[in-house]
Amino acid sequence: METKVSIFSQGFRFYYVGIFIVFALVSSSSLASLSFNFYEASCPSVEFMVSNTVRSASSSDPSIPGKLLRLLFHDCFVEGCDASVLLQGNNAERSDPANRSLGGFTVIDSVKRLVEIFCPLTVSCADIIALAARDAVAFTGGPLINIPTGRRDGRVSAAPNVRPNIIDTSFTMNEMIKIFSSKGLSLDDLVILSGAHTIGAAHCSAFSDRFSEDSKGKLKLVDPSLNSSYANTLMKQCPARASSSITVNNDPETSTTFDNQYYRNLLSRKGLFQSDSVLSFDPRTRKLVEEFANDEASFFASWSQSFLKLTSIGVKTGEEGEIRQSCSIAN
Questions:
Q1: Which of 37, 62, 152, 271 could form a disulfide with 316 if both were Cys (CB 3.0 to 4.6 A apart)?
Q2: SS3 193
């Protein structure tokens, strides 16, 4: 195993999950060449380089952790965890409107440049994304998870593949279940991984469907599942015809801390998106929401297992992919 030393100042917890149990739930072929000591000989300091870069960037810009975590989701749900979301081009994934608000690219590029100095053509951009997201969670107070590496970078990135594979904030429970199931993720994984919304921010347009504009150009709440006081706050932050650049914290209480406040918010009807709120109302997921709202340790342990599954979706290994010299351009 790789050395398990945190470069974070304090307050971290390592979670060693039931690896073999989790692996059994994920395609065995996708994990055939992943290991916990993949870079032990070829680039032993890679995890330190990733962690140090994430820590530095996040200290300067508190929005970075949320961006890195979202970047991982959008990468893994389309073409698998293969850094296809990083490729640039007129018809690449990044050109789809659903991905234009993604961030964190500069952090990944900074890590890649550093790694190429010490370990040229050795570490994949796909592994960097996974490790950076892992460290973003730890930096904001969440668990630091030991994840396997050895992913290869994909060569395919097509905008038409984005919409059919990612969750829209207005999705119903059944629509979300369908997408998660297609990735080998369970209903529990859906509830657990939605906890990513405990950090990060969203543009006003991401939840505008919960309001309508009257004849005088003022917004009014049309979604009764949303707490009215919270709704009034959101309408002040995002008035009608607000600038498309305005963002709102996903978690109105502890926006820069990875904790279980997200689930407490759901029970208080303060889920920012419709896709959040439905978790606390649907009888299939309500019990787990209540459990996590009352027990942060349970959420962290569950997050560690589901995160491992997330970062293993459709991974490419061996000849299936490549090691890019630049994350935005295929070799």
A1: 152
A2: helix
Helix locations, 140-269, DSSP H: 173-182, 187-193, 228-237, 261-267
Distance CA 214, CA 70 (A): 33
Contact of 126 with 81, CB cutoff 8 Å? yes
> Can you read off the two tokens belonging to residue 265?
């918010």
- What CA–CA distance (Å, rounded) separates 29 from 31? 5
Helix (H), strand (E) at residue 206 = none
Amino acid, single-letter form, for residue 285? T
The sign of the torsion formed by the CA atoms of 73, 87, 104, 100 equals negative
Helix, strand or coil for residue 89?
coil
Across-strand partners of 203?
A: 247
Residue-wise pLDDT tens digits, 232-249: 999 999 988 776 789 999
Which 3 state secondary structure label does DSSP give 329?
Answer: strand
What's the pLDDT tens digit per position in 248-296?
Answer: 999 999 999 999 999 999 999 999 999 999 999 999 999 999 999 999 9
